[in-house]
Amino acid sequence: MATTGLLSHYAADFAADGKQLKDHQQQLQQEVTRLAGRAVRLSDVSVLGWSDDAQVRVVTFAEVVDSLRGYRTIRQYWERRGKTWQIVYETALR
């Protein structure tokens, strides 16, 4: 998936570990370039939801890249914005 396609899922007010969307965009571009041609699969996916002022889903998954050792666990917070869902926060747990 191209970086533009990935970024369409991120909210304009996205933040992650002190980084804003612009900084995260650079990190995503580097990752897409580094993983070009390798299959990436998700496993151990969980989706938990709650509603307060906003509809939010907490999505946790293991990201496994073919030909690389191990995996990393990602947690994302998705918020419903109008008719779409967007990532508002993301962090690597492992």
Portion of residues in beta strands equals over 45%
- How many β-strand runs? 6
Rg over CA atoms, rounded to whole Å, is 14 Å
Category from helices, strands and their pairing: alpha+beta
Q: Can you summarize the main beta sheet?
A: 6 strands, mixed
CATH C-level class: Alpha Beta
The succession of helices and strands, N to C, reads: HEEHEEEE
What is the name of the CATH topology? Nuclear Transport Factor 2, Chain: A
From the coordinates shown, what is the CATH architecture?
A: Roll
How would you characterize the overall build of this protein?
The chain is of the alpha+beta class and 94 residues long. The protein has a single domain (3-92), classed as Roll (Nuclear Transport Factor 2, Chain: A). It contains 2 helices and 6 strands; from the N terminus they run H-E-E-H-E-E-E-E. Strand 1 and strand 2 form a beta hairpin. The longest helix has 14 residues, at 21-34.
